Amino acid sequence: MRVSRVQAEENRQAVLNEASRLFRKHGFDGIGLKDLMAGAGLTQGAFYKQFASKEDLAAQASGRANERARRRWSAAAEARPDDPMAAVVAFYLSMEHRAERMDGCPIVALGSDAARQGADVKASFEAGIRDYLEMAGAWMGGADGEADADASRPKVMAMLATMVGAMLLARAVNDDGLSKEFLEAAAESVLAASAAERARRRPAQ
After folding, report:
1. pLDDT value for 111
2. Residue 179 pLDDT
3. Is residue 25, in this structure, part of any structural domain at all?
4. Residue 90's pLDDT is what?
5. How many other CB atoms are there within 10 angstroms of residue 16's CB atom?
6. Can you point out the beta strands (E) in 69-187?
C-alpha cells in the first residue's frame, strides 16, 4: 500500500527522533540501519525513500539532537532569569545529565565520533557548538544578554570546553564519587568565571 506524503513525513520525523537517541547511545558506527529503522517502528526498506545514506541520516539526526539540547539550555535559563548561566550549569553538570546516555548532550555523546565523520555531520556539530557559545556568551554577563563579544569569547569557549570535558570524564569512569568530583570541580570553575565576567561588565558606581 502506498504511503501518503503526510505519513511519509511522520515516518521521517520518527526516524530522526529515534536515530538522534540511538546514535547517542551506540555511536554512529555502533548501530546498523536495520536496528535504527526498527527503533522507529519501520522496516529497513523504507530508509532510502527518506534519506540518501546513513551519513545523511547521521547529519540530520545530529541536527535534531542539537536542536533539543538548545531548547533544554533555553528552558533552564528562562527558569532563572537572575542568573541563567548558573541554571544551565546546575542541570548540565549534574549526575542526572551524566545518566542520560540517549537524551543528553550530543557533543559529549558523539563528539569524538563526529571528528571521524564527513563534512555534513561535522557541520551539524559545528552549528550546535556555535549555538552553545552564542547562548553562553549572552548569559555569562547576566540576564540582559549584553554583547561585549570580543572580550568574552575566549572565556565562553573555555567555559564550554570545561563543561563538555567534565561530562565526558564523568561518563568515562565507573566510580560515581570520582564522576561527581569532576562535575563539581567544573561547576565551581565555570561559575567563578561567570561571576568574574558579570563583575567586569557591571557599570561602575
Report:
1. 94
2. 98
3. no
4. 97
5. 19
6. none
What pLDDT score was predicted for residue 140?
A: 74
**Euclidean distance between CA atoms 110 and 14, whole angstroms:** 20
Amino acid at 194: S
Run of H or E residues at 76: helix 54-79
Measured CA to CA, the distance from residue 64 to residue 61 in angstroms comes to 5
The answer to whether residue 41 is domain-embedded is: no
Distance in angstroms (rounded) separating the CA atoms of residues 190 and 88: 11
d(CA 109, CA 99) in angstroms, rounded, equals: 11
CATH of the domain at 170: 1.10.357.10
Nearest residue to 188 (alpha-carbon basis) of 93, 47, 48, 74: 93
In the chain, how many domains are there?
A: 1
Nearest to 65 by CA among 100, 29, 117: 100
Q: Which three cell numbers stand for residue 181?
A: 568530583
pLDDT-above-70 percentage for the chain: 91
Identify the DSSP state of 117: S
